[in-house]
Amino acid sequence: MNVLGLLLAGGQSRRMGGGDKALRLLGGVSLLDRVIARFRPQVGAMIINANGDPTRFAGFGLPVVADSVPDFAGPLAGVLAGLDWAAAHRPVWEFVASVATDAPFLPHDLVARLVQGVREAGADLACAASGGREHPVFGLWPTRLREDLRHAVVVEGIRKVDAWTRRHKLVTVSFADRPVDPFFNANRPEDLTAAAALIAAAGIS
């Protein structure tokens, strides 16, 4: 699919104790490796959005793109970085799909269903939901709104995802949260323990 996959790894991981949360191990495999394995078949190319020294991700063989907005401006800055990379390297591609890199149970049909949701609803954007909760960083972003987003983040100082998406037609695509919520995210060390228990109980790879 001609959609750019954006792996959001630019946060500061304070609740995990700092460092790169995406590189933490779950069952001997990094969270980032697990997300990549599920995400790669869904997109035409992938990039990692991360700040700091990019060489720490060299083993993944993917372009590493830093925020152009300083001071850890949040996921919207990461999405903007992805849209800018797409404009430079995949200019005819219509969408960027973003995922958090701490979600080891990412749906295998995430991108296809987000694209379908946008097409069927005539929407601008899509985000995922499960268990009655929206997950805005698991989203589909049109490249045509790149400059609109830049103005919002750089000029207006908008940081909350929904503060910008509500300006456009957004469709929410719901996913089943059983037997495991596909958007379970590992924010704290104890979440890694819980994820390992879910893998053992549900037989998830």
Overall description:
- Helix content is 32%, strand content 22%.
- By secondary structure, it is an alpha/beta fold.
- It has a single domain (3-202), classed as Spore Coat Polysaccharide Biosynthesis Protein SpsA, Chain A (Alpha-Beta Complex), CATH 3.90.550.10.
- The strands form two sheets. Strands 5-4-1-6-8-7-9 form a seven-stranded mixed β-sheet, sandwiched between helices.
- Strand 2 (25-26) and strand 3 form a beta hairpin.
- Helix 2 packs antiparallel against helix 4 (146-155).
- The protein is globular, with a radius of gyration of 16 Å.
Please give the structural blueprint.
Layout: E1 3-8, E2 25-26, E3 29-30, H1 31-39, E4 45-49, E5 64-65, H2 75-89, E6 95-100, H3 110-121, E7 125-130, E8 133-142, H4 146-155, H5 161-165, E9 170-175, H6 189-202
Parallel strand pairs: 1-4, 1-6, 4-5, 7-9
Antiparallel strand pairs: 2-3, 6-8, 7-8
Provide a compact summary of the structure.
The protein has 205 residues and is an alpha/beta fold. The protein is built from six helices and nine strands; from the N terminus they run βββαββαβαββααβα.
